[in-house]
Amino acid sequence: MGSGEEANKPTSLYDSSSQSQPLLLKPPSIEEPNQPDQPESDPTQYLQISYNYGPRPFKDLPFVIFFVFVVLCTFGFGIFSVFHKNSNHSNLSSYKYDLNSNSCVRNSTFNGFYESRFDFYALSSSGSVFLKSLIWTLVVTLILSVPICFLLLLSLKHYTKQIVYVSLPFFVAIPIFFNVYWFVACTVSSSCSDAFPLVYRILVLVFVFLIIGIIVWIFVANWHRIELTVKIIGVASDALSKNLGLFVVIPLLTLGLVVYYAPIVVFLVFARLNGKIVPKESNGEYRCVWKQDSWVPAYYTLAILTMLWSLTIMVEAQVYVISGTVAQWYFTKEDAKPRRSIRSSLRHAFGPSSGTVCLSGLLICVVRFVRAVVDSARQEDVPGMVNLVLRCCVKALLSAVDFLNKFTINFVAITGEGYCTSARMTYELLKRNLLSAVFVETVSTRLLAGITFVLSAIYAIVVCAILKGASSMGVYSYVVAVLAWALLIIVLGFFVHVLDNVIETVYVCYAIDRDRGEVYRTEVHEVYSQLPISRNHRPPIAPIAPVV
């Protein structure tokens, strides 16, 4: 990027030769006489924010060291559980209490093999048609999901408006169809109508219609955002189509997480085999039971927390790779193509920024755990003013952490700074440029989720119709169609997850462009400049003019 940076220099928004009003005034020229003692928020220290192509120092290193220590403990105790297992666990039923020795002894005449044998032949013979149809349907669905994702991406890139407006009626029509269909089918079926009385069927029917009405109200209330959301999705789809390698790297990272989980699951299985068979008195009678070693519950806790932390780390690492790759595309000249952008993002995510990724994953894991505890306590409906105040305080704290974490990993992937520095710089960056730290166009996520639901539902209806006509599965064809729908919506949900991260990354890159007074991507500025300014900060300068 040495000599090419001068040639790739973007259009400046501070060009003094321009006769029109500039898009942004230089931050140093903004006078703040009432705030003389704020050296840390001095705007001049952020003027050179851009993608860091140079070598990056290691940040937040203690957290990656702590994570490695936790993983080593999990694997170490897991290996110990494998070699320390008690093979008598599977023969618990063959032990009986001996009055002479006051212990459990094995009954040598007992043979439980034939009694505990599972008749797999009976299962395979009775459900062979169902299993064969299910396996083939899921395999075909998984294969077809790849071209479906690419066709959806190309359609959103070139025909975003048409796709969105055609899908909107189906957001209501498909739920109405399923709601009426199940009501009629249950009414016609004698077994269903007997098990589910008419009054309850009507209540469920009305309840589903109320939910559909709420969905309609949400889209009507946000109708003024639809046009801008369509443009944002189109810009993000274009950015994602220029980095198709992400569709290979992100699934491979997920597969790597599954491979990493496999030995931990094995360790958990072997951990429960660590213990001994002891007698237990119950109602004056002794019987032999399995007693786990005292360290087994603690290991279960450690292993499960390690898996949860690893999951959030992988999610943040994927966000990091997506953000770093898209940012390199953004800050490259339009007729050029960044080289090895995905490789460099992977190297940074699992290298200099690995500690920051571990810290962000730890915060998300803690927030999710605390939120689950709070929700569980709320369901128990514990009375008392103190409990109510504590719940409110915890929710406020969790909201503050979510606010802090918003866009932080995106900024880390661009600059290579530490977590705390990136969180502060992101907030200051968005605040100076009158942009909200909470992305205003969350409608894009709902629209994309609705589109995936529509496509998956249409696919499930086609699968069900084919199974009804080509096989005699009966009611099991609905089960296969629902599972095919679930598999396809999971794959399309992965696509939406990637596209959402692209939208947020482009948003941060646009904010950096505004801050520097430059334009790397004209089409991005034409769309994102239409976003409303933050309600928390009134502009100290004249209103921002749209990019020409």
UniProtKB/TrEMBL annotation:
<dbReference type="Pfam" id="PF04515">
    <property type="entry name" value="Choline_transpo"/>
</dbReference>
<keyword id="KW-0812">Transmembrane</keyword>
<feature type="transmembrane region" description="Helical">
    <location>
        <begin position="163"/>
        <end position="182"/>
    </location>
</feature>
<feature type="compositionally biased region" description="Low complexity">
    <location>
        <begin position="10"/>
        <end position="28"/>
    </location>
</feature>
<keyword id="KW-1133">Transmembrane helix</keyword>
<feature type="transmembrane region" description="Helical">
    <location>
        <begin position="134"/>
        <end position="156"/>
    </location>
</feature>
<dbReference type="InterPro" id="IPR007603">
    <property type="entry name" value="Choline_transptr-like"/>
</dbReference>
<feature type="transmembrane region" description="Helical">
    <location>
        <begin position="61"/>
        <end position="83"/>
    </location>
</feature>
<feature type="region of interest" description="Disordered">
    <location>
        <begin position="1"/>
        <end position="45"/>
    </location>
</feature>
<feature type="transmembrane region" description="Helical">
    <location>
        <begin position="479"/>
        <end position="499"/>
    </location>
</feature>
<feature type="transmembrane region" description="Helical">
    <location>
        <begin position="299"/>
        <end position="327"/>
    </location>
</feature>
<keyword id="KW-0472">Membrane</keyword>
<feature type="compositionally biased region" description="Polar residues">
    <location>
        <begin position="35"/>
        <end position="45"/>
    </location>
</feature>
<feature type="transmembrane region" description="Helical">
    <location>
        <begin position="447"/>
        <end position="467"/>
    </location>
</feature>
<comment type="function">
    <text>Choline transporter.</text>
</comment>
<feature type="transmembrane region" description="Helical">
    <location>
        <begin position="244"/>
        <end position="270"/>
    </location>
</feature>
<feature type="transmembrane region" description="Helical">
    <location>
        <begin position="348"/>
        <end position="370"/>
    </location>
</feature>
<dbReference type="GO" id="GO:0005886">
    <property type="term" value="C:plasma membrane"/>
</dbReference>
<feature type="transmembrane region" description="Helical">
    <location>
        <begin position="202"/>
        <end position="223"/>
    </location>
</feature>
<protein>
    <recommendedName>
        <fullName>Choline transporter-like protein</fullName>
    </recommendedName>
</protein>
<comment type="similarity">
    <text>Belongs to the CTL (choline transporter-like) family.</text>
</comment>
<dbReference type="GO" id="GO:0022857">
    <property type="term" value="F:transmembrane transporter activity"/>
</dbReference>
